[in-house]
Amino acid sequence: MINQFRSLSPFNLLLLAAYTIFMRLAIFIHLPDPLSFEFLEPYAKLLIQIPITDSFSPAINIVLAMVITFVQALLFNRIINNHGLLAKPSYLPALLYVTGSSLFLQFLILSPPLICNFLLIWIMDKFLKIGKTTNAMMTMFDIGMIIALGTLIYFPFIVLLLMLWLSLLLYRSFNWREWIAGIIGFLTIFFFIAVFYYWNDKISQFYQIWKPLINKFPSALQINYNDYLVLIPIGVIIILATLQLRENFFRSFISTRKAFQMLFFMFVIAIISFYTKPDFRVYHFLLCVPPGAVLLAYYFSNAKKRWFYESLFAVLVCSIQYFLFV
């Protein structure tokens, strides 16, 4: 499987589509109860009216989520190949994106983080470009607006504002205009929302939007560790990828080194952002899939011993299927 996806053969598109369906067999065989899907946060619904999706049957919900994941995988694959983050262009990023998006049952249904991954992939592309531009002000402004749009869909997306400055530290020399451009872009969207709230005499509710930002980071979490045993193969691959990246670090292009550092920070921020959502669900961690899939793809792109990396990927897929069915 891995060796097949190391090429850009058009046949791999059919294989990827079949693989995406295969990774969702468990939820198709055992359809869940009727599912509700909130496309926007409550504070955005006053401004934008979206049809209620409770009318979707579980099957339609799952099929839509599958199609969205497949499209995202192709977009993600194109961006990673365009920026040359792997040894050579391939369909490995798409393969690992679909794999990462199938880890848990909650990843397989429509959810706000799944929609936000379109924006996250777009942001990744823009961050990877800022080191190649002479003036990054407009790019940072655009990223700020994209983060604001993501925040309307799923509030924890706001924590990605930290990436504005972390990326500038990695890629650019200090320019105060670039440092504030992203925040101005973010505030532009919320300025119009504030005006709308004011016109409707609900400005006090607008202030309530920001309260989750002062939530205390939880000191203890109730976790059923049996639900997360599927992460063991992922952890092994990440360790191997990190060792491989460390070995090749100073032989890589400077832009590639900075890209992986940026993706590492994005991965960490996506994880810790859950604290802004007291009732967060497992599907929150779909936000970790794009940056995480790059590291997984990096390992399989550079691994030498075919019997080992093919076996490791087979163990990963079998583990996911086992825990999805069980």
- Mind describing the biggest β-sheet? none
Give the topology string: H per helix, E per strand.
Answer: HHHHHHHHHHHHHHH
Cα-atom radius of gyration? 20 Å
pLDDT under 50 segments (min length 5)?
Answer: none
How many separate domains make up the residues? 1
Number of helices: 15
Q: What proportion strand?
A: under 5%
Distance between the termini: 24 Å
The percent range for helix content is 55-70%
Mean pLDDT across every amino acid position: 85
The total beta strand count reads: 0
Secondary structural class: mainly alpha
Shape: globular
User: What would you call the quaternary organization?
Assistant: single chain
Describe it.
The protein is built from 15 helices and no strands. The chain has 326 residues and is mainly α. The chain has one domain (2-136, 214-325). The radius of gyration is 20 Å and the shape is globular. The model has no long low-confidence stretch (mean pLDDT 85). This is DUF6427 family protein.
Q: What's the helix and strand layout?
A:
Layout: H1 2-5, H2 11-22, H3 25-29, H4 42-45, H5 58-82, H6 92-100, H7 112-129, H8 137-153, H9 161-171, H10 176-199, H11 203-208, H12 231-248, H13 254-272, H14 289-302, H15 306-325
